[in-house]
Amino acid sequence: MPLLLIGCGTDEPGPQARPAMWLVTDGDTRIYLLGTMHALPRGTDWNEGKVAAATRAADELVMELSPAELAAAGEIFQKLAPRTAPLAIEKRLSGAALAGYRALEDSGSGFDGEKLDDWAVMVLMGQRVARNADLSPADGVETGLTEDFKAAGKPIDGLETAQAQLMLFETLDAPTQRALLTRAAKGSPDAARKVSALTAAWGRGDIAALEKVINDDVDAVPSARKAIITDRNRRWSAWVQKRMERPGTVLMAVGAGHLVGTDGVPAMLDAAGIKVTRVQ
pTM for the complete prediction? Predict the structure, then answer.
């Protein structure tokens, strides 16, 4: 699950990326669906070719969170994350999971995990994994698109609020939260390699490889998949169908994991009888 939760830029040339993108269109509406990575290797060159053309053509940008909601997310996390009473990590994790947690914690500052809900510890672990894999939020797709659309004076909106997004985790039942935390901790020694593989698959536009990495991460806890992936994709698919009733060109940029597989947004739209064409 930390693979789904993933500084400064650089003047050095970075890796080239051509992420997968789809188009939904009718007589007067075009909606591009771009799969994103929230953090990327510094200097990654992703905004070229058809993505750049879609950015220029779009009248508006729609992301998971608007810039204002993204800015509010940290404060909301701080309010939701604490436990009502501390609980030592040793009482939650053992064996390989505890060792993995401690090793990841030792790679930077402590998580103060005993004070936090299981889901919140997992989020912090995911952020640490991204950092250890040399991924930078400043080079993430959402950051770059936000800069482009702000510079062009085009509106930017969001599909969710930060409160609603974090409540998806906060409201998971206790066994599901513990299963996610345990899996993340146990897999932490290999997590940086896996997130690098995920980033590479995204950069190649390799949706089969993306789906495999993501499914390996989330299918172990089906109840989490429903809340964090499938139900949201269903809502976003409904949003696309409703937005098609109005003219204009929209760039919808959401995490790449939401656009692949049989419960991805393109597949859901296709099942609803809406033509979806992959354009990159």
Answer: 0.91
Map out the domains of the chain as residue ranges. 2-278
What count of residues does the chain have?
280
Q: Tens digit of pLDDT per residue, the chain (280 long)? A: 444 454 333 334 467 899 999 999 998 999 999 999 999 998 899 999 999 999 999 999 999 999 999 999 999 999 999 999 999 999 999 999 999 999 999 999 999 999 999 999 999 999 999 999 999 889 999 999 999 999 999 999 999 999 999 999 999 999 999 999 999 999 999 998 889 889 999 999 999 999 988 887 777 788 888 899 999 999 999 999 999 999 999 999 999 999 999 999 999 999 999 999 999 9
Dig out the tokens for 42 from the structure.
Answer: 């510094």
Please give the Cα distance from 184 to 179 (Å, whole number).
Answer: 9
At which residue do the structure tokens 């089906």 appear?
Answer: 222
